[in-house]
């Protein structure tokens, strides 16, 4: 007589048996185009998830983030939160996925909203970022419940709005309403596409600012009668090239940021606008001769956990002060547009340790720890929700996100679903874990 199968083996078999369902679910999610901006079909996808998860015994809440950026009657910011209680007291494991996808862009060879299966991959906008991860977490939770119906604690699955545009109408709003309070949720996994053997601990910080230089308008044939704001901005750029960029390149972090180039401080000049606005594409006239009296530049500074945001700002002010010291009539303003502090979950945190063991057991290799160069919704769970026990872990190749012919591999989704399911076994299968 064969030995009875372990819970882990039964979970793995259960997930393999749901392969077709996983493909169908991923395709169905892709076929609801949730483009952001402007925030299309959020209600539709939340209704779809409500039906699916209510069928699996989850209690469903639909929450509209009234009054958040972009929320309107035409484009309401809907979120769905599903919770399934176990049979015993215990901890809650929450899977959070964003439902929005970015613009399609050019260069596709397949229908971006077709959800087509080809050579073991499901294609479409959002396939890897992150409808594949959402589908994998749903199948993982459903398979876990099937093999372990008497589990302890609770499982939550949320589909949230607007991650691609800052998450204010999604996770930030829910965190403010207490959905990520440590007394309600103890572990969070965000199935962003970080690759199935990598645990993402957090992200670098962000400081976006607009620098405006001022001049004086005059006739373009007599620029000496005015003062050119664009030349002032040119001096700012020159000073940045001479002193700021080299200094940033020397700042290295101990955070395991990928890719390698993002292991240092970075600054992107996002845009510069100076002088007259450009005419419409069909305007055939000439510009009028004027000296520009304003030039605006948006900078996107990404900083490290070793850095302090006050110092990040002070460095930019120093550039401007240096320029002011050598240019007559140099006047400027700096306006902060956006700030996010760096966040990094400790490697010793329970969710990190649990998922690392699940990766090792499922894939037979050690988990890799990474930090994301850009931010994602973990920032709100950490800062607003005050919940530190949070990681990003999910299937898909990060480099494919936002690109044409985006896809997610079916085997990768199955493997990561097994990792998520094993994590549920470790955290919830036994009532011993009761909080
Ligand atoms: Zn994403």
Automatic annotation (TrEMBL):
The keyword Metal-binding applies. Pfam families: M20_dimer, Peptidase_M20. It comes from the Bacteria. Keywords: Cobalt, Hydrolase, Metal-binding, Zinc. Its cofactor is Co(2+); Zn(2+). SUPFAM superfamilies: Bacterial exopeptidase dimerisation domain, Zn-dependent exopeptidases. GO terms for molecular function: hydrolase activity; metal ion binding. Residues 202-326 form the Peptidase M20 dimerisation domain. InterPro entries: ArgE/DapE, Bact_exopeptidase_dim_dom, Peptidase_M20, Peptidase_M20_dimer, Peptidase_M20A. The keyword Metal-binding applies. PANTHER family: ACETYLORNITHINE DEACETYLASE, ARGE_DAPE-RELATED DEACYLASE. Belongs to the peptidase M20A family. NCBIfam families: DapE-ArgE (TIGR01910), PRK13013.1 (NF009558). This is Succinyl-diaminopimelate desuccinylase. It comes from Thalassovita litoralis.
